[in-house]
Amino acid sequence: MSTTLTPSLMFIGKASEAIDRYTSIFDDAELVRITRYDASNPEMEGQIMQAELRLQNQSLLLTDSPDMHSFTFTPSVSFFVRCESVEEVDRIFAALSEDGTVMMPLDAYPFNARFGWCNDRFGVSWQVGLN
Q1: How many Cβ atoms sit within 10 Å of the Cβ of residue 56?
Q2: Which residues on adjacent β-strands are paired with residue 52?
Q3: Which of 16, 67, 71, 82 has the largest CB neighbor count within 10 A?
Q4: pTM above 0.85, yes or no
Q5: What are the sequence ranges of the domains in the chain?
Q6: C-alpha dist (Å) from residue 125 to 15, 19, 42, 79, 109
Q7: CA distances from 42 to 18, 39, 66, 76, 83 (A)
Q8: What positions does the domain PhnB-like occupy (predicted)?
Q9: What is the distance between the alpha carbons of residues 48 and 51, in angstroms, rounded to a whole number?
């Protein structure tokens, strides 16, 4: 097996909701595998121990943390989605920014003819632009 690099996203009880949301947004989304906490960990039972999700040929690991932390997601690290059409940019950006925070609204910028940057409802940062 070769060495790989896979982004890992840690949620506090929202990993299943994030998987449902992301698979509804990206046409090629695939839930590759999922492991849930069982009754041996009653406070976490049903939450995601680890899941692998594939979006746009990129694997992501998602997990629910059993502990509260003083940190969460930050926009200084984001996913950049390169789209083939303005319509795709608009659709994906609208879905990701729904109930989130828009940091750069959809517009033409010197570096991209159609681009937007947002944090989604989970706090994960997304940049969406034309390819």
Answers
A1: 13
A2: 33, 61
A3: 16
A4: yes
A5: 8-64, 79-130
A6: 15, 15, 31, 6, 18
A7: 22, 5, 11, 35, 42
A8: 5-128
A9: 7
